[in-house]
Amino acid sequence: MMGADMLRAAICGAGHWGTRLIESVQGRSAKIRFVAAVTRDPAALEPLGKRFGLALSARYADVLADPAIDAVVLATPHSHHAAEIAAAAQARKHVFVEKPFTLTRASAESAIEACRAAAITLAVGFNRRYAPAYADMERRIAAGEIGALRHLEGNFSGPPSYQTEPGNWRSNQVESPGGSMTARGCHVLDAMVHLAGLATEVVAVSERQQLRIDVDDTTSCLLR
Asked: Most buried one in 86, 89, 170, 202, CB count within 10 A?
């Protein structure tokens, strides 16, 4: 059952990560529940719909027009985010969007302004800010327990890029123009900006050394 204050959300993009997002709150949270899912192939996701009690639709416009839905969660291809956020703002739906937020500064600023004008809540999926170790580090820095922050180093390495097939929507420079920074390294960048403020200078080197897909697998940045 849903309480009067529970946020009713639609997930857009119910693939691997979208399913993880549903699992993280469905039946576990008193604040939000997924009631619908937007997918290119509703018939293929009938088991998922039955498992979580979701109404399935192939049209994003359907959930935006539904007054029973309060918010949308976007786990869609990166290049779709800007337009989907703008449409949600126009429909007065709150938005949680997976990172990367959008793929250009101009589209990011436009999306933020649309949400601000609509007076809706906009959140981006930098979930690692809430990891216990990160929260404790942030607290210690703010309290001055470990001295002044002078230098940060970060590394994010993992196997998913090697597991991505050539036909996957992530497997190209259009959806992953920032190489390793687009979907994974941005967590490190977010932590640095969160702790130390905006960067004023950036030097970066990015290249594909190993992958079969058209995405850089090694990206290094130096920020002031």
From this structure: 89
Q: Which H or E run includes 57? A: strand 55-57
Do β-strands 55-57 and 32-38 pair in parallel, antiparallel, or remain unpaired?
A: parallel
Amino acid at 66: D
Q: Which two tokens stand for residue 48?
A: 């998922």
Neighbours of 151 (CB within 10 A): 5
Q: Residues 6 or more apart from 166 whose CB is under 8 A from it?
A: 212, 213
Q: Residue 57: which of 39, 45, 43, 82 has the closest Cα? A: 39
Instruction: Tell how strand 7-12 and strand 32-38 pair up.
Output: parallel
Distance CA 81, CA 98 (A): 9
Half-sphere exposure of 111 (CA within 13 A, CB side): 26
Residue showing tokens 């977010």? 190
Q: Dihedrals φ, ψ of 173, to 5°?
A: -70, -20
- Sign, CA dihedral 21-27-32-33, equals positive
Give the position of tokens 């991505």: 164
How much is the pTM? 0.90
Q: Which of 53-57, 58-62, 85-89, 180-184 has the lowest mean pLDDT?
A: 180-184
pLDDT in tens, 85-122: 999 999 999 999 999 999 999 999 999 999 999 999 99
Nearest in space to 86 (alpha carbons), one of 100, 101, 99: 101
Contact 54, 34 (CB under 8 A): yes
Q: How far are the Cα atoms of 26, 63, 178 from residue 51, in angstroms, in the given order?
A: 10, 19, 36
